[in-house]
């Protein structure tokens, strides 16, 4: 039986194909507007571990304007996963504010959920992979690899191989994540007044 005829046989029996199962999984994971699978809790644990217990933080869902979104997507050749982001505003005792932007990028076949912290000037303080769903390539979750983004901003070089290290066996993830971080760096100055 050929692959196309086996696909037909599965459809006749009512058994979904692997592609359809994957698509259904993605729909269930990301349907609606809420944060699923403990992602909000994981982000807030990272915020507390990164900045201590003396901080105050709040989360909001920010809709992205079509014009800014489209402009950035064309520049980086990567789409935003949704037309909104979850953003945490973090206030320290001295009044200094930092911002955590949560987004997703597509890995080989599954989304990678990541968080980037910015200071008030739009400089990256840190980045973290919150959920990596692929069977391999998870090295982009390492703090050493993510440390490459510290200090970068909208004006920085985000070229893999020239400023950003590649990882053997994680090529797609490296490029997706790097572009995703650059995308948020370009977005930050455009949304800062709304934070």
Task: Please characterize this protein's 3D structure.
Residues 1-12 and 22-33 have low confidence and may be disordered. The chain has 2 domains: 1-31, no CATH class; 37-194, no CATH class. The protein is globular and about 40 Å long. The termini are far apart. Strand 2 (84-91) and strand 3 form a beta hairpin. It has helices at 3-13, 18-30, 39-51, 66-76, 143-146, 171-191; strands at residues 56-63, 84-91, 97-106, 111-119, 124-132, 159-160, 163-164. The chain has a 5-stranded antiparallel β-sheet. The longest helix is centred in the last third of the chain and has 21 residues, at 171-191. It is of the alpha+beta class and 195 residues long.
User: Major sheet, described briefly?
Assistant: 5 strands, antiparallel
| Total E-strand runs | 7
Structural shape? globular
Number of helices: 6
> How many individual domains?
2
Keywords:
37% helix, two-stranded parallel sheet, five-stranded antiparallel sheet, globular, 195 residues, alpha+beta, 2 domains, 6 helices
């Amino acid at each position: 039986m050929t692959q196309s005829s086996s696909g037909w046989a599965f459809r006749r029996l009512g058994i979904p194909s692997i592609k359809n199962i994957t698509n259904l999984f993605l729909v269930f994971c990301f349907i609606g507007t809420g944060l699923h699978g403990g992602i909000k809790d994981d982000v807030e644990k990272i915020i507390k571990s990164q900045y201590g217990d003396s901080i105050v933080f709040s989360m909001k869902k920010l809709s992205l304007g079509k014009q800014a979104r489209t402009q950035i997507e064309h520049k980086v050749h990567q789409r935003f996963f949704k037309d909104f982001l979850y953003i945490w505003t973090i206030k320290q005792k001295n009044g200094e504010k930092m911002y955590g932007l949560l987004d997703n990028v597509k890995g080989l076949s599954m989304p990678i959920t990541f968080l980037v912290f910015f200071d008030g000037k739009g400089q990256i303080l840190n980045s973290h992979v919150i959920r990596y769903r692929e069977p391999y390539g998870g090295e982009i979750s390492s703090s050493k690899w993510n440390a490459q983004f510290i200090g970068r901003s909208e004006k920085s070089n985000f070229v893999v191989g020239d400023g950003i290290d590649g990882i053997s066996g994680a090529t797609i993830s490296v490029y997706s994540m790097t572009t995703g971080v650059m995308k948020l760096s370009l977005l930050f100055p455009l949304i800062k007044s709304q934070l």
